[in-house]
Amino acid sequence: MSDLGRKDFSDKVSEAVKPESEKSTLEQTKNTVTDKLDEYAGKGTPDNQKSFTQSAADHAKQGHDDAKDAVNKDQQTLADTAAQYVDAAKEQVGNAAEYVSSIVTGATEGAKTGAETKK
């Protein structure tokens, strides 16, 4: 049973169980629209005016959304950290290349000087 203006919980379950690939475009659109309407209706109704089923479904959805947001935030933080490590590594590779280049240049100059001194 659903509260007034709310999508029935059993309908939500059946829609979630059926793979998207088996749904028509019309069915997918209808589900998206009715899910949004149900979400807005759920947010506009205080918990004490909801049935137990609707309240539990709303809390489960909120928990799912919160977990999804936390994962997305963690992924972004991880991506930022990885980018910082990559930038630091690039800088160190540049420093090492510059160091090796200076040693090779110094060795070349030293060899030239030594060869001229021997003449």
Description:
This protein is mostly helical. It has one domain (9-118). It is 81% helix and 0% strand. The longest helix is centred in the C-terminal third of the chain and has 67 residues, at 52-118.
Task: Summarize it.
The protein is mainly alpha-helical and 119 residues long. It has helices spanning 9-17, 25-44, 52-118. It has one domain.
Task: Please identify the oligomeric state.
Answer: single chain
Beta content? under 5%
Unreliable stretches (pLDDT < 50, length at least 5) are none
Rounded to an integer in angstroms, the radius of gyration calculated over CA atoms is 32 Å
Structural class: mainly alpha
* Largest beta-sheet characterization: none
Shape: rod-shaped
Total number of domains = 1
Helix content: over 70%
Calculate the terminal CA-CA distance, rounded to whole Å.
103 Å
Could you spell the SSE succession in H and E letters?
A: HHH
Number of DSSP strand runs: 0
Give the rounded overall mean pLDDT. Answer: 85
- Count of helices? 3
